[in-house]
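REQUEST FORM: STRUCTURE PREDICTION
Request ID: SP-0412
Submitted by: Lab K.M.
Chain count: 1
Length (residues): 385
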Amino acid sequence: MAGALCVLVCAGAVAVTPSGAAVRDPGPQDAYEESAARLAARLAGVRARLDGLYARADEKILDYAAAAERLEDAEEESRSAALAAERAREDAEDAREQAADYAAAAYMGADLSAALAWGSAEGPQEVLDRGAGLALIGHRRGSAVQVAGAALSAADTLSERAEAAEEEVRGAADDAADAKEAALEAVAEQEDALADITAEQSRVERRLARARGGIGASEQERDQALEQAETAAGSPRPGGAHSAGEAAGACTASGAGAHPNGRIPASALCPLPQAGEMLRPDAAADFIRLDDAFRDRFGRPMCVTDSYRSYPEQVRLFREKAAGMAASPGTSAHGRGTAVDLCGGVNRHGSAEYTWMAANAPRYGWRNPPWAQGGFEPWHWEYTR
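STATUS: Completed
RESULT:
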C-alpha cells in the first residue's frame, strides 16, 4: 500500500507523498490566519466608512452650533425689539396724557375773549402773547403725540419682523439638530458594526494564538521579538541568546529618532508579535511587555490594526480620509514608530479592555493621548518615553 502511504506530522500539518516530497496540509492555523486577514480587510473598510461618517457628523454638529448661535442672536434681537416697542408705547401714552392735560387746562383757565383783552391792566398785547404761547405749546404737544405714535408704529413693525426672523432661524436650527442626530445615529450604527467585527477578530486571533502555541512557535516568537527590541534599544536581557540580527535586517540598529518622520529604515524598527506590525525599538519593547500584561488579564494578545506608518502611507491616508481625520504627512506619531491603533475591545471607550489599558498602559510608557480621550479615538495609543 505504498501508493496510499501518508504519514501525518503535527496533527495534519505535513504529509509525505509516495515520492517522498513533503506537502504541507492546510491546518487550522492557516484557516485562522486567512480568516484574520479577511476580518482585517473588513475592519479597514468599516473604519474608512466610519472616518467619513465622523467627518460628516462633525460638519453637522458645527452647522447645528452655528444655527443655535444665530437663533440666540435672533432671540436677543426679538427681545430688544419687544422692549423698544414697549418703551414706545409708554412714551406715546405719556405724550397723549400730557396733551390731554394741556387741553383741559387751556379749556378751564384760558379766557381769550376780546373784552378780557381790552379790560386787562396789561392791555390786549399781554393776552394775545399768552394766547400765542398756548397755541404754540398746543402745536408742539400735537406734534409730540404724532411723533410718539409713529415711533410706536415703527417699533411694532420691528418687533413683528424680529419675531418672524426668530421663527425662521428656529426652524433652521431644528433642521440642523435633526441632521446632527441622523449623522450621529449613522456613526453609532457603523461603530456597532466595527465592534462586531473586532470582537470576531479577537475570537479568531485567540484561536490563531492557540494554534500557533500548539506547534510551540508563538511564545518563542514573542521572546525573540522582545529580546530583539531590548537589544536594539540598548537594554538587552542578561543571558539573552537570541541574535538581534536574525529578523531579515529588521531591528538591528537604534537611533530611529534621528530619521525623518516616516523615513525610518527597517533596521531601526522592531517587529511586534502581531504579524506585520513594527515600532521604534524602545517603544516595541515596552509594547510587548504591555501586551504580556494584557494577555495575563484577558487571555489573548492585543489586537493591532496599525503601527509604524511610512511617509508614502501617510500621504495616501491624508488624501483618502476626510479633513482632520489623518495627520498631515510628516507629522504623524505613527511615522515616528511610537503609535499604534488597537482593536479587540480597546477601540471602544468604556469597555473593560479600554478601562484596563487606561489604568495600566502608562506604567509601560503608553497612553491614549488627551486629544483622543473621551471616546474621540479610543483605539489610538502613543508611546511617551
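NOTES: Residues 36-199 form one domain.
Reviewed by: T.R.
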